[in-house]
Amino acid sequence: MRKLSQAFIYLSLIMPTLSHAAGVQIGRTRIIYNAEKKEISLPLVNKDNALPWLIQSWTDTGDETTRGPFIVTPPLFRLDAQKEQSLRIAWNGSSLPEDRESLFYMNIRTIPATAKEDSDKNMLRLIYKTRLKLFWRPSGLKGTPGDTCKNLHFRQEKSDVIVINDGAFYSVFDGLQFGNTPLPKADMVAPFSRIAVPLPAKAPGTQISWRCITDYGNASEKYTSTLIQG
């Protein structure tokens, strides 16, 4: 029988956008927790043909330290080769805003087992850590995530583009461009808030275009707008 070994030096890799970590495949790239649900599930599949993996899971508030208001079960378990198991995620009842989405992060650490015949060898093994966005979505919010993305406003102030979100949902960019120039530092904008994105020096044009990532993890349609000055 193969066993999990502690006799190795492990290297931790953070892979926030991947839907799998080596032999373990994670069922989605983002998690939407609708408030009316008692719990939601996240399927995990061990694609390894022979070895089990150890799975550890928890949520945080975004600082990678403070635990989020969710109970994840099982928090630590062994997933055998070619087997599937779902994590169950349940809100713990803590007070959260009712007029907008809240963002947390789901952490999944996967540790590969070591074959018995390799247990005495000096080997470098990898620990994979995947972080998924977890959106807490209250009931009865006005509009949709698609509407929020479509209705973003853009204004230029000096050397920045100010992105304004008047909606109740997060907008996470799949891409943002000023003319033909990508703005790679654009990540996301929270509900009822704004962010400043640096403009490249002497970038020509007045058109801004963008796509957002949908609930299903793919890109929305492309939207365009004229950048308002000042």
Which terms summarize this structure?
single chain, about 230 residues, mainly beta, Immunoglobulin-like, 2 domains, 6-stranded mixed β-sheet, 5-stranded antiparallel β-sheet, 1 helix, 20 strands, about 5% helix, about 50% strand, globular, disordered N terminus
Task: Please tell me about this protein's structure.
- With 230 residues, this protein is mostly beta strands.
- The chain has two domains: 9-137, Immunoglobulins (Immunoglobulin-like); 145-229, Immunoglobulins (Immunoglobulin-like, Sandwich).
- Helices cover 3% and strands 49% of the residues.
- The chain has one helix spanning 145-150; strands spanning 9-14, 20-21, 24-26, 30-34, 40-46, 53-60, 70-73, 76-79, 84-91, 102-112, 124-137, 153-157, 160-165, 171-178, 181-182, 188-189, 193-198, 207-212, 223-226, 228-229.
- The strands form four sheets. Strands 1, 4, 6, 8, 10 and 11 form a six-stranded mixed beta sheet that branches. The protein has a five-stranded antiparallel beta sheet with strand order 2-3-5-9-7, with no helix packed on it. Strands 14, 15, 16, 18 and 19 form a five-stranded antiparallel beta sheet that branches.
- The relative contact order is 0.18.
- It is found in: Periplasm.
- It comes from Enterobacter soli.
- This is Molecular chaperone.
- Residues 23-141 form the Pili assembly chaperone N-terminal domain.
